[in-house]
Amino acid sequence: MTTTTRAPRRRLRRAAAIIAATAAAATLLAASPASAAVEPVPVPGFPAPTAHSQQAYDPTDDFTAKWTRADARQIAAMSDPTAPSRENSLPEEYTMPTVPKDFPDMSNDQVWVWDSWTLTDGTSNQPSFKGWEVVFSLVADRSLGFDDRHTYARLGYFYRKANVAERPANGGWTYGGHVFPDGASGAIFEDQSFSHQTEWSGSTRIFDGNKLRIFYTAVAFYRNEDGSNRKPYDPRIVQSEGRIFADENGVWMTGFRDQHDMLQADGTYYQNGAQNEFFNFRDPFTFEDPAHPGKTYMVFEGNTAAPRGERVCTAADMGYRAGDPYTETADEVMDRGAHYQLANVGLAVADNAALTEWTFLPPILSANCVNDQTERPQIYMKDGKYYLFTISHRGTYAAGIDGPEGVYGFVGDGIRSDFQPVNRGSGLALGSPSNLNFAAGKPFAPDYNQHPGQFQAYSHYVMPGGLVQSFIDTIGTSDDFVRGGTLAPTVKLDIDGSDVTVDRSYGHDGLGQWADIPSNYSHPISSASDPRPTR
């Protein structure tokens, strides 16, 4: 028998196993209370995912949910081992539709654009301001190489008229410029000898009237001429207050001169530079929890506090059930180097009404020996459930684990829960099309055999109604690819309990308009035009 006849049969056997597991899970769902966590059924040849109750705990409790090895291995269990070169090996229902190469530039060739977020209120809804929709983005001058943008990032903003039925191809956005005055974000660092100083992701809240508070990551790099660190880089979670204004011609902002240095990695819950010069600490997202009135919380990306290379992973991080024939021990995976990946999602609570003083709480999720980055975390609430969404890279997984670039999701009954990874216990919510049978390459050098969409989009941001925005990174393979630097088409997720699937009825086969970030209500303020500042 030839391989061409064997491959389809192997694929059919894998598909049949997955279909059977899914059907069994559906039967369990039909027989279970609506509020209960549904136990995913293991795929033959792979371990069962860890059992998670979704039970809520008090935000101050010392309980951290775990995205375990047993959970994350479900992604490979869903992947088709016979998918040929340049085909997607992952389930279509969890895969972002392929983005075309002929994309428009939302900035009209002014700046590179990547991580972006909306103007929000305390419930993460997205108001328009005096008839304008507003989005905040990391930007860098296009004279820089695309991969040099991270160390020169500034926080910029765009605006467009709300409630417009037909938009230009690029989304109809106007670039408003930098948000912060030059030098403002660098002033917080005691050591002013930095080689580079930059502004990284966060979130923006609007309050009564036209007051804005921006929560972001200020970063100082201390590098030698050869690119090595003369001391670890210094990321800090910072807040700055300003004002937003608008008239019939557009939007502008003032203030943001004062910068409040709120949180630095403590080395107790969250790894710091003394423990690991490559640590992650960034991306604040603030919100109010209806279960705890009067409290404001923040989630952010961190790493489990431990010296780099210390063997800290435990059997609980593995997450295998007793007697599972596909188990791994913590020592086995650490012998392969998995203990260098120690991602977590942090939690903090505000101590004052101005939201300038915060207290660390224990992390709400860890991914020890699973992944090293849980970027741009968000809390999303729907139908009484709390969803923790975060993003991660294929290249940051630990040895023995694989998964695509994209969104990962976890569902529970509170902001601190025994979070259950969505979609068959894997955590994969929305991946870029990828083939786990072939190497990834890098965005600047994608593998020839990879699906052309593997690096197509990143830094996804989940919006009301399940809409998701991301930026274009690289589309294509090594023989023919283009770099991005603008926002991708919006897509939509259907979020239902522990199931999160792509809505293919949205837009054109699942791809909406380019950079479509709609407001879902009008901020309660007079629509009268503000007077333009005199120069």
Automatic annotation (TrEMBL):
Pfam families: Glyco_hydro_68. The active site is at residues 115, 375. Residues 1-36 form the signal peptide. This is Glycoside hydrolase 68 family protein. Substrate binds at residues 114, 201, 282-283, 373-375. GO terms for biological process: carbohydrate utilization. The record marks 283 as: Transition state stabilizer. GO terms for molecular function: hydrolase activity; levansucrase activity; metal ion binding. The gene is sacB. Belongs to the glycosyl hydrolase 68 family. InterPro entries: Glyco_hydro_68, Glyco_hydro_beta-prop_sf, TAT_signal.
